[in-house]
Amino acid sequence: MSVFYDKFNRHAEGAGLKGNSTHYCPGCGHGLAHKYLAEAIEELGIQDSTVLVSPVGCSVFAYYYFDVGNTQAAHGRAPAVALGHKLSNPEATVISYQGDGDLASIGLAETVSAAQLGAPITVIFINNAIYGMTGGQMAPTTLMGQQTATSPDGRSMFNGQPMRMAELIAGLEGPVYVDRVALFDAKNRRLAKKAIKKAVQMQVEGRGYAFVEVLAECPTHLRMEPADAEKWVKENMTPIFPLGVKKDLTVEPWWKRPAPDFEPAHMLKAVGASQEATNRHAEAFPTHINPLDISLKLAGSGGDGAQTAAMLIARAAINEGFDATHIPSYGPESRGGTSYADVHVAKDEVLNPASPHPDILIAFNAPSLAKFGPTVVKGGTIVYDSSIVKEVPAGIDPSVKVVGVPFTEIAVDLGKAVVKNIVALGALQAATQLFPKDTLLAAVRQALKDKCALIPLNEEAFAWGVKAVEALGK
Amino acid sequence: MAQLKERPKPFLLPDYCKGCGRCISACAKGCITFDKEIDAATGYVPVVIDLEACNACGLCMDACPEPYGLRETPADVDFELQDPAKLFGGKKSTAPTPVDIPNQRIPLPKSEPLVIKGNYASAIGALLAGCRHVFGYPITPSTEGAELMAKLLPKLDGTFLQAVSEVATVNHMYGSGGAGYPCMTFTSSPGFSLMLEGVSYMVGAEIPGVFVNVMRGGPGLGNIAPEQSDVKLACRGLGHGNTHAITLMPSTPQEMLDLTMLAFELTFKYRNPVVILGDGYLGQMTGKVTLPDFMIKPGIPTWAVNGDAMHRGNLISSIYLSEQDLEAHNVYLNDKYRRMIEAESRCETFMADDAEILIIAANTPARASKGAVQDLRQKGIKAGLFRPITVWPFPVKQLAKELAHVKQVVVVEASNGQLEDEVRLALSNHGVTQLPAFSHVRHFGGMLPQQTEVLAHIQALLAKEAK
Ligand SMILES: Cc1ncc(C[n+]2csc(CCOP(=O)(O)OP(=O)(O)O)c2C)c(N)n1
Ligand code: SF4
Ligand code: SF4
Ligand code: SF4
User: Fold this and answer.
1) Distance from B230 to chain A by nearest Cα, in Å?
2) Tens-place pLDDT, residues A30-67
3) A7: contact with B, CB 8 A cutoff
4) Which residues face B350 on adjacent strands?
5) CATH for B108
6) Alpha-carbon gap, residue B170 to B183, rounded angstroms
7) CA angle B187–B188–B190, rounded 5-degree value
């Protein structure tokens, strides 16, 4: 059996007897399950592609014995670790070997979700109805009435009833093969060996997730001789945990994953990096607004397009070779609710991206104008939607230029209310001369490069925003 | 060797028998019984087999739980030979010695700057660093990172898995990183705390992995607004045990990309997780991001459990059962931490060379502070900024040097003193006990200190001094 190390070097450095015997108690079912698993790996010829995930529990040291790639996982997390291996390395055969405390208690979420995901991994589940390693405490699989260190008077209704994992897993859509086997007599040992091999084979063939529950003996914590423990499992466990195949689907091999792509061109395309330089239109930084760093705030409610407009301003500035930032802030609602954007445009570097005292405010509704109007700096500019805001509130510094443009009416007239933010951009441009018109329009076109049909409408919206301000003579 | 076809009879070295008796009940012919005496070497009573009566059915061997317990009698060995070394032992592992498959640096053509959010920038940084395996569980304000990965990774034949929880996430990373692949996650404070169990295991087992924690307001569910609430967690509390991880604090979308790339380099260099602490603002903030002129195609390190022949002999585990071994492992880990402290302490200064008032701040608060420094300089006040880029290891040598000309330190942060504690602890450990006056501007609960507040605080300090 070459899948076992010839010497268990990890066990007490392989010294003395421990170099060739397991750390399990005499008669422990783990040893048998190990043997059948090693034989399966051997017979399937997959020693060089197998990763075994050892759990927490008595089999925490499974890696002492198996001459395959080994990973030891945290209590209950073995299926998640196994998936990490399998998804990174689709060719590997990944086997998660777990006890009942590990699989059915602390790691229940990882167990169920990995099974439902259905990726081909193999889970070998040792159900000995008790916690071995920590000294015989109650497991989720402990039988009713069974005395354990933490159910000294026997498991009662107060502790809930034993968990039937094979049935639970078989009830999920993900798994292709679920079986429950036992080790207490020759016939069942043969079936156990077959089931373990089949569960690994299902993975090797790329057919899907497979789960084998093994009813195993823990003579130590049952406080029995191994022969009596075999009898106990047969007589007491099998009525609660009926043996046999719970699910065996005919699934064609489907698991195939390509090797990751490291082609620079694909990378640049995926992230939307353009190699085409954008034209510059601005002659200089708009120092007439602020010499180094212009701060803007766009405020409205979700759906007004404040964030998109903010993004277009930032993009326009960056196209011109300036620095820019945009910070969105929303209410907790997914739709509607408040929606504010802080934008900075800086000659060299935006130092502080927040706009508590903006040079420019674009307000899409009355609450926004009321809230932020008074924060605009002396000599700043406010552009607001006069279709929505009927009265300019008090508290705005008299030096601030306040321009009302009917964003919504213009947009509705153009046939698409959603372009009101582009009307606002036109108005912004006309009211502040932030950038040349082409700068903003180029950003709009860039944003719509995949929806070219919308470009003329947006250009028109922009032009109407400009015209509306010009008509006001401001 | 005439009768090769004959089924082999069972064979047992009494020293490898634990006397469990499972073979006894397995033998229908009743050939196996317990020996009369306890084996002196094992303390167990082994079995004896009556090979005369045995029909070589093999059932006893199937029943023996020991790999080297009851076995088939080796055909080609003299049965009398009782020397285990000659019987079974001595086979050398057939696994080849693993060799490092190094990373490849692939040139990237120049492109126009991207205008993207911090979260996106970090995701793109990870892709450029060669990461094709991303695991995560959605949490605001970090989700855009995972969303972009879910969109882009299929195009690059990579894998994004939405895990069932943060607990599962970090364990997917444990498997993926353990297999030698660059992997990462995006999370935010409540998610990061759930991952810490796994982070500790990764540190113990020396597994690389990058954690982008876009911090939000706590404790508990708190809110989704920016805070620097996890500085202490990252610096002093990465799960149980003696853990540390390089913790980077970017302050711009560009740095979200650059430091994510750096994080991948460092996580493999040290075989240790690396944490990126952003704040909620930074994750959501859009800015100008220039791509580097290269990308990485990762290799496979020698230590990986890669599920192939070459790496078969490897083990990923954090178990050191003997106290001496665990102490030795911790001495080794601590030495690694010391090497990180020596080589990876990073910071940026802004007008700090002659500063008399030095602001210390990281993430977005550092940007507000930078603005304040500019305001103060315009007013002729000698202010400067010291921005730790690694908060662990804290760049204390660099800071200590600046302190020579500093009269006042002002720590600006979005937490109740977590950064200031790191500053003070680092200085104290560094032997700096004569500190300049310390004061601070703090907000927490999801608010960030504002430029105007920093400015006002420092002006008030100066006014007090003038009196
Ligand atoms: C997070 C965590 N909680 C608790 C433990 C302690 N612990 C170690 S083994 C174990 C029970 C294992 O029982 P089981 O999975 O049934 O395996 P067995 O020992 O029976 O083979 C527990 C609770 C741990 N190691 N980690
Ligand atoms: S305690 Fe039980 S499960 Fe653990 S090794 Fe002993 S017999 Fe096996
Ligand atoms: S091989 Fe069969 S007959 Fe012989 S000892 Fe074993 S179980 Fe008994
Ligand atoms: S089953 Fe194996 S370990 Fe148990 S008594 Fe028989 S030979 Fe010994």
Assistant:
1) 22
2) 999 999 999 999 999 999 999 999 999 999 999 999 99
3) yes
4) B385
5) 3.40.50.970
6) 10
7) 110
